[in-house]
Amino acid sequence: MIKINKITRGRFGNKILQYNAAYQLARKLNTDMSCGDWEGFKIFDLNSPENNKDREEKLLTCGEFLNSSWEQIKELHERYDLIIDDPAYLLHNVFFELTHIHPRDILKLNSEFKIDLPKDSINIGIHIRGDDIIERDGNEGREIHPSSYYREAIKLIEKEHPDSKKRYFICTDDVNFIVFQETLSYLRSVGENVFLGPATSNPSRTQHILDFSLLSECDILVASSSTYAICAGFIGNDKRIIHSREWLQKNVNHEPWNKKPTTEEARERQLSFDNFWVKVSEGGNEFYNAWKFV
What we know:
Strand order of the largest sheet: 7-6-5-8-9-10
Shape: globular
Order of helices and strands: EHEHEHHEHHEHEHEHHEHEHHE
């Protein structure tokens, strides 16, 4: 069995990616999975298999997974139930190596959370990160996308669809962030139809799923560096995704996350997380890829 005994302490996108990793690994090994309680059981059409505690458990870390052959993983599973709790870090850094079933077929929003967008327009979702990269462990703002990125993405969309009706939906968890304010002001200045996500206009920790649902159903997603945006990209509608070329290049160059002293283990972990974005810059795959870089 593949197990998540306790869902990650990370935010919503990390939880989705941890669940996806467990599900994909279980299916690869033709075994069952179990997962400790998390909000996804209410939000998505998922069941919660019981945790079989008959076998000894072993933490399967990201490093072990990436540096092992499938035969070695299978041999481990023959001896143990494999768990991927923190600090295993089986998140987006193993997405391309592990995912073989489309996540949108696994993680389907329950009807009460699903947002139906208008069919008479191209619906563009814009995600702008906020307090999680400013006030918390923001790695010195490394992941902030400037408002110029969002302006260039909007210009690209306007160029690609000059005569089409468009609706722009902006989602963020920090309406006071200057990037949000400048992007909203720009859209209004060029006369576009612009709306705020439900949770953006009425901030609530319990309502964030409505913004996520909206982004997942858009036709075009102007993405941030957040795992929240990554997951909205591969869940829901089959959409075109725009990413920041500058952000991707930071990962291609493996620029340090911050100026703090780092251990070899931490450096290896950064490289594994960077490599998700390196693969996106190289074209991704059928489960996650970018339409354009600006």
